[in-house]
């Protein structure tokens, strides 16, 4: 990962799923959908003044959403904020910043 740039795409783990679980209600509010499935599959991260996560989330059948979640530094509370969402993605769509 270059300084300030996003990491390579890696498989999501339990920590990333916890972030998605915490952001599910915000994603539902932004999209107007009620997600039955909301499973993190892949992600990239960018370390800046906190951490930005770009996450591919399986939302049912062949549908995926891309989320950008910002996590503040611990000294600033460490809170999470959903800062962007792209709907109607596929598994093979690249995870690129938006």
TrEMBL record:
Its localization reads:
Cytoplasm
Whether Cytoplasm counts among this entry's keywords is yes
Under PROSITE patterns, the record lists: CYSTATIN
Q: List keywords of the entry alphabetically.
A: Cytoplasm, Immunity, Protease inhibitor, Thiol protease inhibitor
GO cellular component, as recorded: cytosol
Does the entry feature the keyword Cytoplasm, yes or no? yes
GO-annotated molecular function? cysteine-type endopeptidase inhibitor activity
One Pfam family name is Cystatin
PANTHER family cross-referenced by the UniProt entry: CYSTATIN 14A, TANDEM DUPLICATE 1-RELATED, CYSTATIN FAMILY MEMBER
Protein family membership? Belongs to the cystatin family.
Protein's name in the database? Cystatin-B
User: Which species is this UniProt entry from?
Assistant: Pleuronectes platessa (European plaice)
The uppermost taxa in this organism's lineage are: Eukaryota, Metazoa, Chordata, Craniata, Vertebrata
